[in-house]
Amino acid sequence: MSEIDPRSDIREYIKKYGVLKNQRNVSEEICQKYKGKLPQALIQFWREYGIGTWLDGKFQFCIPSDYADIVDILFEGDPDIRPQRTHIVGFSAFGDLLIWNEDLQTCEVNLPLSTMKIYQWNYNELGSKNYYLKGPIAALSFDHRYNFPTDNKNYTSLFKETLDVIGEITLGECYGFFPALALGGVPALKHIKKVDAKVHFNMLAQMGPLRIRRLNEQEEIEFFRYAGAEQ
Predict the structure, then answer these.
(1) What region holds the GAD-related domain (predicted)?
(2) Could you give phi then psi for residue 192, rounded to 5 degrees?
(3) Which residue from 74, 143, 181, 208 puts its CA 20 to 30 A from 32's CA?
(4) pLDDT value for 130
């Protein structure tokens, strides 16, 4: 087996975040299915640790084929982001999708806010060409990451408040806002329910095209274009 590049190796975060909870083993058949489609570092992580939840459910790894329908909805007809080369490999408690695209590498989608960022499309003064999954995973420890603020002064974030009041989610679950933020909902505890992630993501994906945003030369976030078929 080839050596894993330390720049992409995510196994070190087992020490930082702890073992996966609600753990499920990943078969060698699935590992082989994604060979050449996903980073070897992720496949090796699957082999050793499987999939499961991290940080009290703040983030969880998943098998891409389980969420392929959401990818089809989001990117059907897109000239650059081809669904068959786009794989959801994990997601946050509130529905931020961590995606690996075979051409564009690491991407992130915020489903509640209908936004997307593709690191390769940001202005890059240094000319970097590799955008590893390790970057977003390393940032999980920051309280604001994959999170919303709360007005409750007893908590530092909406995730911590939700975790305390509603309880921890398990594999395949997420916290959903009702009504959805795209329909005028508010990111507050009283509007949150624990739901099936696949069902909820499918609903959110149908609420309109994602707005792809990128970092420009002035280091400002700007709208680039909509995802999917040309508008």
Answers:
(1) 12-111
(2) -105, 140
(3) 74
(4) 84
Q: How far, in Å, CA of 107 to CA of 35, rounded?
A: 19
Whole-number pLDDT of residue 127 = 61
Residue 179 to residue 170: CA distance in whole angstroms: 22
DSSP sequence for 50-116: -EEEEGGGTEEE--GGGGHHHHHHHHTT-SSS-GGGEEEEEEETT-EEEEEETTTEEEEEETTTTEE
**Exposed, middle or buried: residue 128 (CB in 10 Å: 0-12, 13-18, 19+)?**
exposed
Is residue 35 over pLDDT 80?
Answer: yes
Taking each helix axis from N to C end, the angle separating 197-205 and 68-75, rounded to the nearest 10 degrees, works out to 10
Report the 10 Å Cβ neighbour count for 117.
20
pLDDT in tens, 113-145: 999 999 999 877 666 778 899 999 999 988 888
Residue 10 neighbours by CB under 8 Å, 6+ apart: 41, 42, 45, 133, 134, 137
Distance of CA 98 to the CA centre of its chain: 2
27: which residues sit within 8 A by CB, 6+ positions away?
none
Greatest C-alpha distance within the chain: 50
Predicted structure pTM score: 0.96
88 contacts 97 by C-beta, under 8 angstroms: yes
Given a contact cutoff of 8 angstroms between Cβ atoms, the answer to whether 52 and 20 are in contact is yes
Beta bridge partners of 51: 24
For residue 208, give the DSSP letter: S
Encode burial over 23-41: b for 16+ CB neighbours within 10 A, e otherwise.
eeebeeebeeebeeebbbb
Average pLDDT of the residues in 147-176: 97
